[in-house]
User: Fold Type II toxin-antitoxin system HicB family antitoxin from Cryomorpha ignava.
Amino acid sequence: MDTKKTSKTLHLPVLIETDEDGVYIVSCPVFKGCHSYAKTVNEAMDNIKDVIEMCLAEERPENLNNFVGFREVQILAS
Assistant:
C-alpha cells in the first residue's frame, strides 16, 4: 500500500493593510483569525505564509472558505 501524501499547490488570497504606525497587516480571508504583521510587505508576506501553514495543520484544504472576490463600497465620510 502506497502511503505517500500528494502535495497540492494552493493559491490563497491575502489582504494587505497598514496601520497608523505604518506596520503592514496581512490577512488570509479563507481562514478565521489568519493574520500577521511586519515592518515591510516582504516580511509580512513571509510571516503570513507561516501562519497559513499553521492554519492548514488544523484545517484540510477542501474545507476552506471559498474566496469570492474583492469589492469596494463608496461611503461619504463627513
About this structure: The chain has a mean pLDDT of 90. The first strand starts at residue 15 and ends at 18. Residues 41-58 form the longest helix (18 residues). Helices lie at 41-58.
